[in-house]
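hi got a favour to ask and not much time before my train. below you get a single protein, a line of residues and a line of whole numbers that encode the local backbone shape. could you go over both lines and see whether the tokens make sense for that sequence. a few lines back from you is plenty, here it is:
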Amino acid sequence: QVQLVESGGGLVQAGGSLRLSCAGSGRTFSSYAMGWFRQAPGKEREFVAAISWNGDRLDYADSVKGRFTISRDNAKNTVYLQMNSLKPEDTAVYSCTAGGRLGVYNYWGQGTQVTVSS
């Protein structure tokens, strides 16, 4: 089992950048595929980005391609989401998730709020 804690959210103006971090507990962190999802008020949760256990496979939602970058540091049990050129429509609660393989996620963090002002 793994516990996940996100950080790095906040308020930023459109065009700005933020880097989210997700710290995981447990010695098996490096074996998990990791992902980021987001949920805006009144909307369903949507996929943002994912990374395989060793970082050799990356996946992005079309809406964030070219602006967001997912990465991980297994030595630090941490996955990151670098968000550039932020838009008001990126406003949401961002949650990280872990699972046995890309697309299959079993563990979720509490989320961190990202607000982009216009």
Remarks:
- The first strand starts at residue 4 and ends at 7.
- The CA atoms of residues 12 and 79 lie 21 Å apart.
- The two ends are 40 Å apart (CA to CA).
- The chain has a mean pLDDT of 96.
